[in-house]
Amino acid sequence: MKQRFKPITVNMEGTMTAVGSEPHKIQMACPGRLYERDGNFRIVYREPTSSGLGKTLTTVHWQDETMVRIVRTGHSSMTLELRPGERGMSRLKMPLGILTFDVETENIKITETDRGGSIELSYFLDHGANQVIQSLMKISYRYARDDLFDVIKV
User: Fold this and answer.
1) Which of 19-28, 84-93, 139-148 has the weakest average pLDDT?
2) Closest Cα partner for 25 from 138, 126, 140?
3) Burial of 131 per CB tally in 10 Å (0-12, 13-18, 19+)
4) Would you say 141 and 118 are in contact if contact means Cβ atoms under 8 Å apart?
5) 6-149 has which fold?
6) pTM of this prediction?
7) CA atoms in the 13 A half-sphere facing the CB of 7
8) In the chain, what are the domain boundaries?
9) Which of 27, 44, 73, 147 is the most exposed place for a label (fewest CB within 10 A)?
């Protein structure tokens, strides 16, 4: 039977910089899965405990550099749709409440290799009242060896 997904290792590096503040760097790695159907791609992984998002499943959808959608479900819920040059709105639902913000996407760059790939995102989050945060995020994935992936459950 043909496998419907490829086991991967997901690495995320990000920098969030609020106006007048020092940059906040984020870095994590975890096992995940890459799905592909008809040119549409999807990475699925569970957020590690260290991310602060609790028991959250994250899915990153894309087809090309015109749109990337990040969906989080579980302890924290959010849908973030990024389209270069466009402005939209998103909500982050957490146990203590809901945070609504405007999102303005600056750039999306997608790179694929025979060993994996990466998605680079540049966008601004606007909470209102001069609380603008610039976010630079790189989600890279590397194909895992099947024999190692059996030990790690997604």
Assistant:
1) 139-148
2) 138
3) exposed
4) yes
5) Lipocalin (2.40.128)
6) 0.85
7) 13
8) 6-149
9) 147
